[in-house]
C-alpha cells in the first residue's frame, strides 16, 4: 500500500519504520515546513495542502504522523477526508488480538500488545511496548506512550495522553483530554481535562478545554 504521511519529524520516522515492516511504501511526507512540492529519493516532500492532489495522483492512503493529540485532531479536521482515505498501521512485531478493533489512522508500534476485544478509536497511537488489555475502550486521538499499560476493561476517553511507563488499573476511566504523567498509577477514575501524577495518581491541574 502507498502511504502519505502528514508530518516529517521524529514521530514520522518511527511510523515510516512501522509501515516498511509491513511491506508498505511511504511515497510522501507533507509538512508545512516545506514551501513547495519536490521529490527526493523516490519520496514526495511538500506542504500539507498538496495531500489531495497526491491522493489522486498516487492512489495513496494517509496517516497523520503527529505525536501531539490536539494537533493531530486539528489536522484531521482541516483535511476533511473521509475515513476510507486513512490507513491503519500495525508493526509486524506488535501483537493485536483478532477480536480487537482498530480505527482508521491508528498506529500500533513495535512490541505493543492489544488484547482480546479491545476497541481502539481513530487516529490513536499505541506506542512501543505499550499494553492495552482485554475489553478496554480507547477513544479517538489518544496516545498510549511507550511502556504504558491500560489494564482490562478500562476506558480511555478521546484525546487522553498516557505518558511513558504510566498505568491505569482495571475498570477505571480516564476522562477526555486528560493527561496521566509518566510513571503514574491511576487507581481511581480521572475527570475530563485533568492532569494527574504520582502513585497513586493525584490531580495537579485542571483545564476547561483540550488545550494544555
From TrEMBL:
Checking Pfam families in the record gives: Hexapep, PglD_N
Entries under InterPro entries matching the protein:
AcTrfase_PglD-like (IPR020019), Hexapep (IPR001451), PglD_N (IPR041561), Trans_hexapeptide_repeat (IPR050179), Trimer_LpxA-like_sf (IPR011004)
UniProt GO molecular function: transferase activity
Taxonomic superkingdom: Bacteria
The record ties this protein, via NCBIfam families, to: NeuD_NnaD (TIGR03570)
The UniProt entry, under PANTHER family, shows: ACETYLTRANSFERASE, UDP-N-ACETYLBACILLOSAMINE N-ACETYLTRANSFERASE
What is the name of this protein?
Acetyltransferase
Amino acid at each position: 500500500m502507498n502511504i502519505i504521511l502528514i508530518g516529517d519529524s521524529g514521530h514520522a520516522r518511527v511510523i515510516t519504520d512501522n509501515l516498511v515492516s509491513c511491506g508498505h511504501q511511504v511515497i510522501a511526507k507533507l509538512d508545512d515546513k516545506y514551501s513547495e512540492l519536490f521529490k527526493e529519493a523516490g519520496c514526495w516532500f511538500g506542504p500539507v495542502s498538496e495531500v489531495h492532489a497526491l491522493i489522486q495522483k498516487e492512489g495513496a492512503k494517509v496517516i497523520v504522523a503527529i505525536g501531539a493529540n490536539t494537533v493531530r485532531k486539528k489536522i484531521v479536521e482541516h483535511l476533511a477526508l473521509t475515513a476510507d482515505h486513512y490507513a491503519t498501521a500495525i508493526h509486524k512485531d506488535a501483537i493485536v488480538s483478532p477480536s480487537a478493533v482498530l480505527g482508521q489512522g491508528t498506529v500500533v508500534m513495535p512490541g505493543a500488545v492489544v488484547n482480546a476485544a479491545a476497541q481502539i478509536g481513530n487516529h490513536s497511537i499505541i506506542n512501543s511496548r505499550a499494553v492495552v488489555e482485554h475489553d478496554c475502550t480507547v477513544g479517538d486521538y489518544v496516545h498510549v506512550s511507550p511502556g504504558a499499560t491500560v489494564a482490562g476493561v478500562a476506558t480511555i476517553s478521546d484525546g487522553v495522553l498516557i505518558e511513558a511507563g504510566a498505568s491505569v488499573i482495571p475498570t477505571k476511566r480516564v476522562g477526555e483530554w486528560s493527561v496521566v504523567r509518566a510513571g503514574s498509577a491511576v487507581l481511581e477514575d480521572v475527570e475530563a481535562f485533568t492532569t494527574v501524577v504520582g502513585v497513586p495518581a493525584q490531580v495537579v491541574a485542571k483545564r476547561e478545554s483540550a488545550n494544555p
